[in-house]
UniProtKB/TrEMBL annotation:
Its main location: membrane. This is sphingomyelin phosphodiesterase. It is a multi-pass membrane protein. InterPro entries: Endo/exonu/phosph_ase_sf, Endo/exonuclease/phosphatase, Sph/SMPD2-like. The chain crosses the membrane at residues 330-353, 359-382. It is found in: Membrane. Pathway: Lipid metabolism; sphingolipid metabolism; Sphingolipid metabolism. SUPFAM superfamilies: DNase I-like. The lineage of its organism: Eukaryota, Metazoa, Chordata, Craniata, Vertebrata. GO terms for biological process: sphingolipid metabolic process. Residues 25-274 form the Endonuclease/exonuclease/phosphatase domain. Pfam families: Exo_endo_phos (PF03372).
Length: 408
């Protein structure tokens, strides 16, 4: 019986930074991305931050000949920004929204990370091999490494993503994840994701690498990056990844990994503020199924889960304090409104000789109290949900730790 032929799968991953009206030279860069994808002929393209559906439609028309199968993941008011282009049929799709996506009153940067928080799944049939589970995603940005208020939320997202992969990859033979994870390779979130799922890092496993030093994808030399954010990292940072693993009777090896290095060929601008990541994977069926295994030893994984759970606990206590503060502010605003209502009723009933405040000041104070009540109530509800999500994740991690300790 002849061995089944191997498949060489070429993947392109890019955070496009295509925010309509805000991203510099957006339309020009989107056209450049489309031209390059047509010329290079990748098998699978994973794009993030394509916020304009018109940009996606333009790419779809341009790439129809090379990538006949595509999908744009629609979500919320402004969408998820995620899309996939494939040379192979897309068998099914699913969009998963993380339970925590940062703070609505702390939206930082042009991207507005709080609005989306997406993770997408696309089942892809790759010819001679079995189905491929492909995920394109973006986790919450860091913004400030020294005082990272979003770390607990990003850990919740990493945990939910890891659980999502474990529960949805059973029907696939190969799992492929690409996207802007907004985490450094040594961060607890990426260690948790890789350890809990067994995913391998294409950069670490690649036989041949070509591109920015250390595989960095956010570099100071890029004309679109904020140089001040990269002052602690003169070479740049690596936050965009291609991760993979084989589940059943397949082996996957990364033959080559490349990143772009600044300006696109023949142009004076890069594709985006992020560098693109391009991987060539060698997928081969082997004789016996290997089964699903964790990528690290149980004891080492338990340490990572413990570290992540500690950080989630810190976020939980901070959320509880914020819930208490917002609740207290709501009560004070309500009391102020009630006092004003009593004063107004007393004036109408003739209990007072005259209104103690001018009508305009009285009305402005009432509107101020009402606004404070609405705002504080909204914040209280938000932080209540945040507490529940963080507490739930902490409990899940505790159960995972118990299971790991029983196995070791």
């Amino acid at each position: 019986m002849e061995a089944e032929p191997a498949l060489r799968l070429r993947i392109f991953d890019l955070n496009c930074w295509a925010v309509r009206y805000l991203s510099r030279r957006r339309q020009e860069r989107v056209r450049l991305i489309g031209d390059t994808l047509c010329q290079e002929g990748f098998d699978l393209v994973l794009l993030q931050e394509v916020w304009s559906e018109q940009d996606y439609n333009d790419l779809k028309v341009k790439l129809a000949g090379c990538y006949p199968f595509s999908h744009y993941f629609r979500s919320g008011v402004i969408g998820s920004g995620l899309c996939v282009f494939s040379r192979f049929p897309i068998l099914d799709t699913l969009l998963y929204q993380y339970s925590l996506n940062g703070y609505p009153y702390m939206v930082s940067g042009v991207g507005g990370t709080w609005h989306h928080g997406p993770g997408s799944r696309a089942g892809v049939g790759v010819g001679v091999t079995a189905p491929l589970l492909s995920l394109s995603l973006q986790l919450h940005a860091e913004y400030c490494r020294d005082k990272d208020a979003y770390l607990p939320h990003r850990l919740v997202q990493a945990w939910e993503l890891a659980q999502f992969i474990r529960h949805t990859s059973k029907a696939a033979d190969v799992v492929l994840l690409g996207g802007d994870l907004n985490m450094h390779p040594e961060d607890v979130g990426i260690r948790l994701l890789r350890g809990w799922t067994g995913l391998q890092d294409a950069f670490a496993e690649a036989t041949h690498f070509e591109g920015c030093k250390n595989g960095c994808t956010l570099v100071p030399d890029n004309c679109f990056t904020d140089k001040s954010e990269l002052l602690p990292f003169p070479l740049g940072i690596r936050i965009d990844y291609i991760l993979y693993k084989a589940i059943s009777s397949f082996t996957v090896k990364c033959e080559e990994l490349k990143t772009t290095t600044g300006s696109a060929p023949g142009m004076d601008i890069p594709f985006s503020d992020h560098e693109a990541v391009m991987a060539t994977l060698h997928i081969q069926r082997q004789g016996q199924p290997v089964g699903a295994t964790l990528g690290t030893a149980d004891l080492a994984l338990a340490d990572v889960v413990t570290e992540a759970r500690t950080e989630v606990g810190v976020g939980l206590r901070a959320a509880q304090r914020q819930r208490y503060s917002s609740g207290r502010m709501a009560v004070l605003a309500l009391l102020l409104l009630l006092l004003q209502a009593v004063a107004a009723l007393g004036t109408l009933a003739g209990l007072g000789a005259e209104q103690p405040f001018p009508k305009l000041s009285f009305c402005l104070l009432a509107f101020l109290a009402l606004g404070a009540l609405v705002l504080a109530t909204g914040l209280h509800l938000f932080h209540t949900m945040e507490v529940k999500m963080l507490h739930g994740t902490e409990d899940q991690m505790w159960m995972a730790l118990q299971a790991l300790q029983e196995r070791s």
